[in-house]
Design brief:
The protein is mostly helical. The protein contains 8 helices and 3 strands, in the order αααααβββααα.
Length: 208
């Protein structure tokens, strides 16, 4: 990802109809080309008048929001979070079957007992979220995994945690196909997780 201003809409690593029937083409199209793009366009318009922030990474804009001019702080917080969360969400999906392996699977078994238990706990977190937001599988500096909820476009970056997997629970992610059946959306989303990407993030993310 081009990780500083001007931010650009990333290319999906699959075709927009390839997550069918689990996540439908129309939802992917609207979610990616309209919702995600809007966050990117808005973030660029907020940063554009301030060349001193052109080289700030997305993560720095999120972590150091308080160092920005006060009149753009809240909007940057919302929109940089939106760009960050959507990139993670879309990039960790696939039309190919995959399973967690290696250190990631070992840590899942260590913290949750099994992949099934992780799924059930993440599902409980996602489906109990009040309003719009995300359920997040996050890791700390020692690699320990935990589950968090993030409201709106918040992230766990400010908590000394890194997200390795997130599910978008905003209604625009599922409502066209699933209406209020959030359990069904979660179960089908879980089938199209790209565990290779999740494992790469788990192994590679640093905290600089
Ligand atoms: Fe979304």
């Amino acid at each position: 990802m081009h990780n500083h201003f001007p931010f650009i809409l990333p290319q999906l690593p699959y075709s927009i109809n390839s997550l069918e029937p689990y996540i439908d083409e129309e939802t992917v199209y609207i979610h990616h080309f309209m919702h995600e793009k809007k966050y990117i366009d808005t973030l660029n318009s907020l940063i554009e008048p301030y060349p001193q922030f052109y080289l700030w990474t997305l993560e720095k804009l999120i972590r150091d929001t308080k160092c920005l001019p006060s009149q753009i702080q809240q909007d940057v917080r919302n929109n940089a979070g939106g760009v960050y969360n959507h990139y993670l969400y879309f990039n960790s999906l696939t039309d190919k079957l995959s399973q967690p392996n290696g250190k990631l699977l070992a840590e899942i078994n260590n913290q949750f007992g099994s992949l099934y238990n992780l799924k059930e706990q993440l599902k409980a977190s996602a489906t109990s979220l009040f309003g719009s937001g995300y359920a997040v599988l996050a890791k700390n500096k020692k690699g320990k995994l935990s589950i968090r909820q993030c409201a709106n476009q918040d992230t766990v970056l400010g908590c000394n945690l890194m997200p390795v997997l997130i599910i978008d629970m905003w209604e625009h992610s599922y409502y066209l196909k699933y209406q209020n059946q959030r359990n069904e959306y979660f179960d089908n989303w879980f089938k199209v997780i790209n565990w290779d990407v999740v494992e790469n993030i788990y192994n590679m993310y640093n905290f600089t």
